[in-house]
Design a protein that fits this description.
Strand 5, helix 5 and strand 6 form a beta-alpha-beta unit. This protein is elongated. It is built from 15 helices and 18 strands. The protein is an alpha/beta fold. The chain is 43% helix and 23% strand. It binds adenosine-5'-triphosphate and magnesium ion. The site of adenosine-5'-triphosphate (ATP) has 22 residues, from helix 12 and helix 15. The site of adenosine-5'-triphosphate has 22 residues, from helix 12 and helix 15.
């Protein structure tokens, strides 16, 4: 049996508590047509606006249930081919909130309690069928409010998840402080940055904004205004430079300040790039100055040289003044050599570039380099298997190698090994951007000179390429070696990269554009 019983006209006037009023679909599992009719009449008399589908077979029941639009299930407790509790189980599987009401004459008190324990919404004894209308209304109301609660909970959970996603996607560190400036919450970025300091909850906020009582968080709390400072902190990735901002944390409803929010922005990279820019601007201006002076000075030296040559010719060799003139010539020669180095630094040298192979160039210098550094030092070569070809001035590039090898020697007072290597490498755009100018993308020949000497302390590193900067004692170094290297390499369209570790040694690597590579644009060309 599976027939649809329209409700009586009077039922149309029935009002359910929820607006807008909706006609209920009731699935009634019942094998007795008389009982089915009784239930229909009872609901009609109670003004329940509904459409009732009466089924008696399990298959029909399950098919109707599967349609998913049943508002209430009313079921007999014991049917010939179906047990009421099985029907309840199916209903719960189909929709955990669909109201299920047992209507039975045979259900005893104990079974009724058991039925509710199994998930039935209610039970109505046949002798109290008058209660059915109320039972249906209550059940529908309860199901409706459960549905609304569930929807609200889902919406709330979605909102919470969304905010949590935002909170954890922010790459800045976020620290929430209470009115005692104690940490109440942090975002996952903080855990990545400071795993050693975890857990942070309850710790003082001053951990992330140094400055004691005058810290920016205290200022924000006291004065209710944002504050900012910069500080250096040890992170999982080493020392990091941070810009820390503090903002008042306000209660939305009252506007009252209940704490402080700290934002930690890692500016290590930007800071390094900025320093690099300052450094290259400084070198640029020193270069201009040095180049200008050297150029004029060179002209004066040419005049001194010319006139001393004339004097040398005019004064006979047996005249004691002849030796004086020779001294003038010697001093002038030294001054010319010095100005040449300055001109190299300021990239004012006239280059005579040819296609040359760095492997061959370094190989040819081998004997000379070994004589220069002495027997306490071993030179180790590691050449790229392919010719490392560049377009360069042989004499100038040799000067670069020579200066680097001499520095490596000086860094190892007890002797040691100096490793010279050549490599070809492709610098990709992301790496060039990450390293900042003068790095640029392209194919380069790299020549590196590695020592296991003293290494370079940070204060020396900052001034390494400045002309006349030396840490060597008076008379031992002019401080022009690396500035010459810097100028020559730049004039060839390349740059110098330094890696150093105090007490372990240094590696100087020069990058020269591989043959056929575009020269760089701009003033460095
Ligand atoms: N391989 C190195 N290891 C450690 N320190 C180095 C190395 N190369 C250079 N330096 C440091 O850099 C400074 C400057 O080097 P640079 O070659 O410009 O001048 P110098 O070697 O002192 O004098 P010179 O004009 O004779 O070369 C050195 O005085 C030294 O302190
Ligand atoms: Mg030197």
């Amino acid at each position: 049996m599976n027939e649809s019983i329209p409700s009586s006209e009077t039922a149309a006037a029935g009002r359910l508590p929820e607006e807008p009023p909706r006609r209920l679909k009731i699935l009634h599992l019942e094998d007795s047509p008389v009982d089915a009719l009784l239930v229909q009449e009872m609901l009609a008399s109670e003004n329940v606006d509904c459409e009732i589908i009466v089924v008696s077979e399990p298959a029909d029941f399950e098919r109707e249930l599967a349609k998913g639009d049943v508002d209430v299930v009313i079921s007999d407790y014991s049917l010939p081919r179906y047990c009421g509790t099985d029907a309840l189980k199916r209903t719960r599987e189909a929709g955990p909130e669909t109201p299920f009401i047992f209507v039975s004459g045979s259900i005893g008190e104990e079974r009724a309690v058991e039925a509710v324990r199994l998930g039935a919404t209610d039970y109505v004894m046949k002798e109290h069928l008058r209660r059915l209308g109320l039972a249906v209304r209550r059940a529908v109301e309860a199901a409706e409010s459960a549905r609304r609660r569930r929807e609200a909970e889902t919406r709330l959970a979605e909102e919470r998840n969304f905010l949590a996603d935002v909170f954890s996607s922010v790459q800045d560190g976020i620290v929430v402080l209470d009115a005692d400036l104690k940490i109440v919450q942090t975002n996952p970025t903080m855990e990545k940055l400071f795993p050693d300091r975890m857990p942070l909850a309850g710790k003082p906020g001053s951990l992330f904004c140094p400055g004691g009582d005058g810290s920016i968080a205290a200022t924000t709390l006291r004065e209710g205004r944002p504050a900012q400072s910069v500080c250096t902190m040890e992170t999982a990735e080493g020392k990091g430079e941070f810009s820390v901002y503090s903002y008042p944390l306000l209660e939305r409803s009252t506007g009252r300040q209940k704490g402080v929010i700290l934002y930690l922005r890692n500016i290590t990279h930007e800071h390094a790039l900025q320093q690099q820019l300052f450094q290259s601007q400084k070198m640029e201006s020193i270069g201009k100055l040095a180049g200008g002076v050297a150029h004029d000075f060179n002209n004066i030296l040419q005049a001194i040289m010319g006139f001393s040559e004339i004097l040398e010719g005019e004064i006979p060799e047996d005249d004691p003044r002849h030796a004086d003139v020779l001294e003038i010539r010697k001093a002038t020669d030294r001054a010319v050599a010095l100005t040449r180095q300055l001109l190299a630094f300021s990239r004012k040298q006239v280059l005579n570039p040819v296609d040359l192979d760095m492997n061959g160039l370094v190989g040819n210098m081998g004997g000379m380099l070994q004589r220069l550094i002495g027997a306490n030092f071993q030179l180790r070569y590691d050449f790229d298997s392919a010719p490392a070809r560049v377009h360069g001035d042989t004499g100038q590039v040799e000067q670069v190698v020579l200066n680097l090898v001499v520095n490596a020697r000086d860094a190892m007072p007890k002797g040691g090994e100096i490793a010279i290597a050549t490599r070809q490498r492709e610098v990709e755009e992301p790496e060039a951007a990450e390293r900042g100018a003068p790095w640029r993308a392209g194919r380069f020949v790299c020549l590196s000179v590695k020592d296991t000497g003293t290494g370079i302390p940070p204060d020396v590193l900052a001034r390494l390429f400045e002309p006349f900067f030396t840490t060597k004692e008076k008379g031992k170094g002019t401080g022009l070696g690396l500035s010459t290297v810097y100028g020559i390499v730049q004039q060839h369209g390349g740059w110098v990269d330094v890696k150093t570790q105090e007490g372990k040694g240094s590696t100087f690597t020069i990058y020269l554009p591989a043959l056929g590579q575009e020269p760089p644009k701009g003033p460095a060309a």
